[in-house]
C-alpha cells in the first residue's frame, strides 16, 4: 500500500486532531506546575516533566488505535494476503501511522517545553525521550496483537482505558514496585540526574519482551511451539523486571553528574551549573574575599573546591575540610553568598550540635563577614527564636567581638566543643 493511501485510511489521521488538541490543552493548563522547577539548562528536567504527564495518554493512543487497526484488518480479510506479504510486514505498515501519532503526542509538547524554558536539547534529554518512544512502539504492538485476537469492537476502548489507568494509577499505589515498571519516574528529575541503567531496563524489559512475545505468535511454526515460547518469554521478562525493582523505594535509583557545569578559579575552584556561568566571576571574587576575611579571623578557611548545592540536590554531598558544598545560586539570588560560604567553615564533631552554643558560633562567624542580619533572618523562621533568644545571641557575641583575636579564637574553639558535650562527654 502506498504511504499516502496508508495514512489516509488509518484511524490515526482521524484521531490526530482531537488527540493533539487535548494534549496541548492539558499542556497549557496543568503542565505548568511541573515546568516551574528551574531546569538549570538541563533538558532532562524539562523532558521528564512532559513525559510524566503525557506518557499514559501516548500509551493509550498507541495501544487503542493499534487494536482498532488490527480489528479492521481482520474484518477486511487482508490477512489472507499473507502469501504475498508476511503478517509482520502488514502489521508494521498499519502500525506506522499509529506510532507516529503517539510519538507526536510526546515530541511536540517536549519541543514546546524546551523552547518555553529556553533550554537546549542535550544527550540526557534525548535519552529520556528515546526511552519513551521505544515504549510507545511496544504498547502499540501489544495493542495490535490483542486487536488481532479479539475482533469485538469493545476491545478498542477497553485496552486503551486499561493501558491509561494501569500506567497512570501506578504512581498512586502504596506498593512502590509497579510504578517502576511503567516508564513513569516518580519524583522530578533534578539537575544532572538520569535513571540508572536498571531503572531504564526494567520497564523496557517488560514492555519490549511482551511485544516480542506477541509478535512470536505469528511466527510460521506450530501453534504449540510458538505459544510455549511466547508464554515463556513473557514470564521470564516479567520475573526479570520484578527482580530488578522489587526492593526499590518510591523514587527509583538515579545516577548523577550528567549536567553541564562551569568551573573557575584555583584554590578554591568554584563549580556550578553551566546555565549560571555568567555569575561565576562575581561568585569567585566574593567567595575569595569571604575566605580571606575568615582566615584573618584565625579560621582554617582553605577549601580546594566549592560546589553549588544544585549539582547534587537529591543526593547532597556533605562538605569536608577541603571540598565545600555551598548554595551559591541561592546566595547569588538573595545577596547572601558571604554568609553561605562562612557557614561552611564551622565544623562540629557531632550532629546535631546543641542549639545554644551553635547559634552563638554561627552568629560570630556571620559577624566576621558582615552578614549578621542574614543569619538573624534565617533564625526568625524557627519557632523557638524569641526576642529573649535574639538578645542573648547578640549580647553574647558582642562581648566576644571586643576581645583580642587570640581570645576570640579560644572562645570559638571552646564553644564549638561545648556544642557537642553531653554529660561531660564529647560525642
Question: Which structural class do the helices and strands define?
Answer: mainly alpha
- Which sequence of strands runs across the widest sheet? 3-4-5-6
Helical coverage, percent range: 55-70%
Which sequence of SSEs, written as H and E, runs from N to C?
A: HHHHHHHEHHEEEHEEHHHHHHEE
Q: Over the alpha carbons, how many angstroms does the gyration radius reach? A: 30 Å
Compute the average pLDDT.
88
Q: Quickly count the helices.
A: 16
What is the strand content? Answer: 5-15%
Distance between the termini: 78 Å
Biggest sheet features: 4 strands, mixed
Poorly predicted ranges (pLDDT <50, ≥5 residues)? Answer: 423-427
Shape: elongated
Number of strands: 8
Please describe what this structure looks like.
With 427 residues, the chain is mainly α. It is built from 16 helices and eight strands. It has helices at 3-9, 11-29, 32-35, 43-76, 87-117, 123-149, 155-168, 197-216, 223-245, 280-296, 328-334, 337-343, 355-368, 372-379, 387-401, 405-418; strands spanning 194-195, 254-255, 261-264, 269-273, 305-308, 323-326, 421-422, 425-426. The chain is elongated. The termini are far apart.
Blueprint (SSEs and pairs):
Blueprint lengths: L2 H7 L1 H19 L2 H4 L7 H34 L10 H31 L5 H27 L5 H14 L25 E2 L1 H20 L6 H23 L8 E2 L5 E4 L4 E5 L6 H17 L8 E4 L14 E4 L1 H7 L2 H7 L11 H14 L3 H8 L7 H15 L3 H14 L2 E2 L2 E2 L1
Parallel strand pairs: 4-5, 5-6
Antiparallel strand pairs: 1-2, 3-4, 7-8
Helix pairs in contact: 2-4, 2-5, 4-5, 4-6, 4-7, 5-6, 6-7, 6-8, 8-9, 10-12, 11-12, 13-14, 13-15, 13-16
Amino acid at each position: 500500500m502506498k504511504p499516502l493511501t496508508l495514512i489516509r485510511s488509518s484511524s490515526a489521521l482521524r484521531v490526530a486532531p482531537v488527540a493533539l488538541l487535548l494534549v496541548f490543552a492539558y499542556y497549557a493548563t496543568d503542565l505548568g506546575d511541573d515546568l516551574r522547577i528551574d531546569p538549570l539548562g538541563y533538558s532532562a528536567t524539562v523532558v521528564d516533566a512532559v513525559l510524566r504527564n503525557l506518557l499514559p495518554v501516548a500509551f493509550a493512543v498507541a495501544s487503542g488505535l493499534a487494536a482498532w487497526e488490527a480489528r479492521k484488518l481482520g474484518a477486511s480479510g487482508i490477512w489472507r494476503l499473507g502469501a504475498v506479504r508476511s503478517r509482520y510486514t502488514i502489521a508494521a505498515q498499519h502500525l506506522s501511522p499509529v506510532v507516529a501519532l503517539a510519538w507526536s503526542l510526546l515530541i511536540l509538547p517536549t519541543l514546546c517545553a524546551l523552547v518555553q524554558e529556553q533550554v537546549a536539547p542535550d544527550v540526557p534529554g534525548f535519552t529520556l525521550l528515546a526511552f519513551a518512544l521505544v515504549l510507545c512502539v511496544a504498547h502499540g504492538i501489544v495493542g495490535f496483537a490483542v486487536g488481532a485476537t479479539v475482533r469485538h469492537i469493545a476491545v478498542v476502548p477497553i485496552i486503551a482505558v486499561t493501558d491509561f489507568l494501569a500506567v497512570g494509577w501506578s504512581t498512586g499505589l502504596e506498593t512502590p514496585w509497579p510504578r517502576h515498571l511503567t516508564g513513569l519516574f516518580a519524583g522530578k528529575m533534578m539537575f544532572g540526574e538520569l535513571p540508572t541503567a536498571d531503572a531504564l531496563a526494567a520497564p523496557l524489559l517488560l514492555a519490549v519482551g511482551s511485544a516480542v512475545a506477541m509478535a512470536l505468535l505469528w511466527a510460521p511454526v506450530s501453534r504449540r511451539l510458538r505459544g510455549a515460547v511466547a508464554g515463556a518469554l513473557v514470564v521470564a521478562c516479567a520475573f526479570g523486571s520484578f527482580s530488578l525493582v522489587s526492593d526499590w523505594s518510591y523514587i527509583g535509583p538515579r545516577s548523577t553528574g550528567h549536567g553541564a557545569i562551569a568551573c573557575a578559579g584555583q584554590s578554591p575552584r568554584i563549580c556550578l551549573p553551566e546555565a549560571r556561568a555568567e555569575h561565576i566571576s562575581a561568585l569567585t571574587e566574593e567567595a575569595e574575599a569571604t575566605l580571606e576575611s575568615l582566615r584573618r579571623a584565625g579560621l582554617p578557611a582553605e577549601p580546594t573546591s566549592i560546589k553549588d548545592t544544585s549539582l547534587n540536590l537529591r543526593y547532597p554531598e556533605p562538605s569536608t575540610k577541603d571540598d565545600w558544598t555551598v548554595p551559591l545560586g541561592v546566595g547569588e539570588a538573595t545577596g547572601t553568598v558571604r554568609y553561605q560560604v562562612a557557614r561552611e567553615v564551622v565544623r562540629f564533631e557531632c550532629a546535631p550540635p546543641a542549639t545554644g552554643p551553635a547559634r552563638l558560633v554561627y552568629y560570630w562567624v556571620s559577624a566576621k563577614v558582615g552578614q549578621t542580619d542574614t543569619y538573624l533572618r534565617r533564625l526568625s523562621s524557627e519557632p523557638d527564636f524569641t526576642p529573649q533568644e535574639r538578645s542573648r545571641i547578640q549580647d553574647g557575641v558582642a562581648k566576644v567581638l571586643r576581645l583580642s583575636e587570640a581570645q576570640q579564637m579560644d572562645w570559638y574553639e571552646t564553644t564549638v566543643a561545648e556544642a557537642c558535650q553531653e554529660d561531660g562527654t564529647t560525642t
